[in-house]
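Batch job 17 of 40 flagged for manual review because the log was empty.
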Amino acid sequence: MFAQGVKLDVIIHDKKNKESHEQLLRVNLTGQVPVFVAANGYVLTECIPIALYITSLNNTITPLGSTRRDYYDILKWMSLVHYDLLPAIGALILPLIGDRPQVRKNTEDCLKALYTDCRTLDNQLSKTKYLIGDHLTHGIT
């Protein structure tokens, strides 16, 4: 395991519990999971950066490969799993356990999600000159 020896406190979010949902919104305005909060308060959202952060805690491995080509191939496969495979699995499993898949139903639902995402970006850009660091990076593209 890449993160062997890393201690994590895992909290299961219950959408039906108002207090649990408000706690989630305090660290992630989009209200989506997963969310990672480090002991120093550093917050990460989305599967790929959380996985990269946790695996980078083990200094004995190179989780992004040893060459640039390895790096790009690893990101390609991580993206495929995150954006294509996991939503398909969720769409199959969630109805079986009495939940509905997270799919945008109509234009209003899409606009609501767009507004939330834009608010998240605006919140970050109100605190920093760029999304990431103090110069242009792919984080702004």
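Reviewer: the log was empty due to a logging misconfiguration, but the result itself is present. The first helix runs from residue 18 to 27. Unflagging and moving on to job 18.
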